[in-house]
C-alpha cells in the first residue's frame, strides 16, 4: 500500500513536470469571437463598443509591461474566467468562465500545482501573451 502511494505521488510529480499542454483551439479566434468588440482588433481597448462603456477597456497589449515584464498568465485566466476580479472592473466585462467552457487541458499554475483549465481559456491567454508589446 505504501509503495502504491509513493508511485501515485511520483506519477503526479511527473505529470506536473510536463503539464503545459498546447491548446488545439485558436486563441485568436476565441479573442475575435468574445473580446474584439470592446478591446479592439489589436487588443488596445479601442473596440466598437469601447466608447459606449462606462469605463474604457484596458490595453491588453500592456499586461506584461504593467507586470514588470512578465505576462501574468494566472491572473489573466482568473480575470477572464471571472474567478478573480479587482475593484478596477466596471462590471461591463462578462465572466467568461461558462462561455469558454470546453475540453480541459492541464495547466501548471505555480509551485507544482496542476489545474484542469478549459482549452479555450488557455488558448485565449496564450494569444494575449503573444500580442504583448
Notable traits:
10% strand, 133 residues, globular, two-stranded antiparallel sheet
Structural description of this entry:
The chain is an alpha+beta fold and 133 residues long. The chain has a single domain (25-130), classed as Orthogonal Bundle (Cytochrome Bc1 Complex, Chain D, domain 2), CATH 1.10.760. Helices cover 37% and strands 10% of the residues. The protein contains five helices and two strands; from the N terminus they run ααααββα. The protein has a two-stranded antiparallel ribbon with strand order 1-2. β1 and β2 (113-118) form a beta hairpin. α2 (27-34) packs across α5 and α4 (73-81) packs across α5 (119-130).
Q: What's the helix and strand layout?
A:
Blueprint: H1 2-17, H2 27-34, H3 36-39, H4 73-81, E1 104-110, E2 113-118, H5 119-130
Antiparallel strand pairs: 1-2
Helix pairs in contact: 2-5, 4-5
CATH architecture level-2 label: Orthogonal Bundle
Describe the sheet with the most strands.
2 strands, antiparallel
How do the SSEs run, as a string of H and E?
HHHHEEH
Reading off the top of the CATH hierarchy, the class is best stated as Mainly Alpha
Radius of gyration: 17 Å
Helical stretch count? 5
Distance between the termini: 52 Å
Label the structural class.
alpha+beta
Oligomer: single chain
- Indicate the CATH topology: Cytochrome Bc1 Complex, Chain D, domain 2
Strand segment count = 2
Amino acid at each position: 500500500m505504501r509503495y502504491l502511494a509513493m508511485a501515485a505521488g511520483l506519477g503526479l510529480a511527473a505529470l506536473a513536470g510536463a503539464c503545459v499542454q498546447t491548446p488545439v483551439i485558436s486563441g485568436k479566434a476565441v479573442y475575435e469571437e468574445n473580446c474584439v468588440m470592446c478591446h479592439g482588433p489589436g487588443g488596445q481597448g479601442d473596440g466598437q463598443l469601447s466608447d459606449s462603456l462606462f469605463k474604457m477597456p484596458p490595453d491588453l497589449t500592456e499586461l506584461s509591461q504593467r507586470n514588470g515584464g512578465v505576462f501574468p498568465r494566472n491572473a489573466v485566466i482568473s480575470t477572464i474566467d471571472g474567478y478573480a476580479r479587482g475593484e478596477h472592473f466596471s462590471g461591463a466585462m462578462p465572466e467568461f468562465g461558462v462561455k469558454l467552457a470546453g475540453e480541459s487541458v492541464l495547466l501548471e499554475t505555480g509551485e507544482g500545482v496542476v489545474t484542469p483549465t478549459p482549452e479555450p481559456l488557455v488558448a485565449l491567454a496564450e494569444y494575449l501573451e503573444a500580442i504583448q508589446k
